[in-house]
Specification:
Order of helices and strands: HEEHHHEEEEEEE
Number of strands: 9
Length: 191
């Protein structure tokens, strides 16, 4: 028998109908009916074994500890909306200097005051709108533009003059306890 004749015969067998139902439905129903069984003896045996086990005792809940409430007294704490005093402000506020010279501790610090003077380098200058600006490179390799009046370094160094080859500044250094002195220094062009 050739295979090209098998397919039509198989299709005609599948499409056969018995009492109006396709033959494939009847075969499926017979297989399904063969799977059912009323034997639940193994399940009933397992349930009886579980029920025969001794019941365990339930542990008591742990005793709840009473916690003493905390009394908040805001009068004894600092106001969180006021700025913190700097340590140098605290040690220098009550002392008067002999010559009247002292740094302005209330002034907001500028970005380049976070670096020591030896960590700063002058890398150039820019003439903008008839004003000479200095270019200073910090130790973190960031280049900053500065002008006369800006502050540099940790010793309250104020820029007093900018020329194409150097930046001159006046630092205020502690001298004796309670006294301050001025010292002129400069940053020379390095690159």
């Amino acid at each position: 028998m050739r295979q090209d004749h098998l397919l039509p015969k198989l299709m005609s067998l599948i499409s056969c109908r018995v009492n109006g139902l396709p033959l494939s439905y009847l075969i499926f129903l017979m297989l399904l009916a063969g799977c059912s069984s009323d034997d639940f003896s193994d399940l009933k045996q397992y349930i009886s074994v579980v029920k025969a086990r001794p019941k365990g005792a339930i542990e008591k809940l742990p005793e709840i500890k009473t916690i003493e409430p905390f009394v908040f007294k805001p009068e004894e704490l600092r106001d969180p909306f006021k700025p913190l005093e700097q340590p140098e402000q605290i040690e220098n506020t009550g002392t008067e200097t002999g010559n009247g010279l002292k740094p302005d501790f209330t002034r907001r610090k500028e970005e380049l005051e976070a670096f020591p003077l030896d960590g700063l380098k002058m890398v150039g200058s820019v003439d903008m709108k008839l004003k000479l600006w200095g270019l200073v490179k910090a130790s973190d390799n960031t280049v900053h533009r500065v002008q006369v009046g800006n502050y540099l370094g940790k010793n309250f160094g104020r820029i007093i003059r900018i020329s194409p080859d150097k930046i001159e500044l006046m630092e205020i250094l502690p001298d004796k306890p309670g006294t301050w002195r001025e010292q002129q220094t400069s940053l020379a062009l390095t690159e």
